[in-house]
Design goal:
Layout lengths: L3 H14 L2 H11 L7 E6 L6 H4 L7 E6 L18 H12 L4 E7 L3 H11 L5 H5 L2 H23 L3 E6 L2 E6 L8 H17 L3 H8 L4 E7 L6 E5 L4 E4 L5 H18 L4
Parallel strand pairs: 1-2, 1-3, 3-6
Antiparallel strand pairs: 4-5, 6-7, 7-8
Length: about 270
């Protein structure tokens, strides 16, 4: 019988034999002054390995992972709120460490999103049953608004929705070529909705509206390895390639400069 810990321990030995010395050198370089430049929210799905597909190294990126890539909206934080780590990570990264880029990265065949879709579409939201399942409670409490956005889009029958970033409204066309199944379309809608949730926090709204923090939505297709970036000028998720990747940099630079001019920073 092979246990999961066998894989972990074998991997640690291989790590000692191969990459440990190189990583130790990286640790030494950033030990006293790590300067992470990105905060990424992504799913805890075992098939998602963000440091690998972004090729980031020690000290370069904060990563927050949870079931379904959900960021609780500020409205859930009252006197009786259950505090979660997602907004705390925003403060740690963007306020304390002055990180300027925040990425929300969803993915295809997301088991958490599939479960949320089934719970909402089949009306399986009985409070007594939900309380027995931490996962269902998490998804229904913090993912319900994403499903509402998705239902609105389905009723419109145009694959279009509008989401907010602070005071700025953006239009999105979801899967215009009809390449993905319904659950994946929902995952893309939810990914964009998390940008709205991020700017529901006043301190993040000020940073984003002032052009000091840039928000990005990405989506990973686990079956092809393709990564998509939401382009606001194109109003859709566009596959990132060697030919177009720097176009997205120009988009965000122009957007940040425009916001800074609006705020009188420039």
């Amino acid at each position: 019988m092979v246990f999961g810990i066998d894989k972990v321990l074998t991997g640690i030995v291989k790590y000692h034999q191969t990459v440990r010395s190189g990583m130790v050198e990286q640790f030494k370089r950033v030990r006293d002054n790590p300067i992470p430049s990105v905060l990424m929210y992504t799913c805890m799905d075992s098939r998602m390995i963000p440091s690998r597909f972004t090729q980031t190294n020690v000290g370069e990126m904060f990563i927050v992972r949870n079931a379904g890539v959900l960021i609780p909206h500020h409205k859930y934080y009252g006197s009786d709120a259950t505090i979660t780590t997602e907004p705390g990570a925003m403060e740690l990264a963007c306020v304390i460490n002055a990180v300027q880029d925040v990425i929300v990265c969803g993915h295809s065949d997301c088991k958490a999103m599939n479960l949320l879709q089934n719970l909402r579409s089949e009306g399986l939201t009985d409070p007594a049953q939900v309380r027995e399942s931490p996962l269902r409670s998490w998804l229904l409490r913090y993912g319900g608004d994403s499903w509402t956005h998705f239902e609105t889009m389905l009723r419109a029958e145009k694959n279009r929705l509008v989401f907010m970033e602070g005071h700025h409204a953006h239009e999105a066309v979801i899967d215009p070529k009809n390449q993905f199944v319904t659950a994946d379309k929902f995952s893309q809608v939810s990914t964009l909705h998390q940008l709205e949730n991020i700017t529901s926090y006043p301190f993040m709204q000020r940073l984003v509206d002032g052009g000091l923090v840039r928000l990005h939505a990405m989506w990973f297709d686990i079956y092809t390895g393709n990564i998509f970036y939401f382009s606001k000028p194109h109003k859709m998720f566009v596959e990132i390639t060697e030919e177009n990747w720097d176009d997205f940099l120009d988009e965000k630079e122009r957007e940040a400069i425009s916001k800074q001019k609006e705020k009188g920073v420039l």
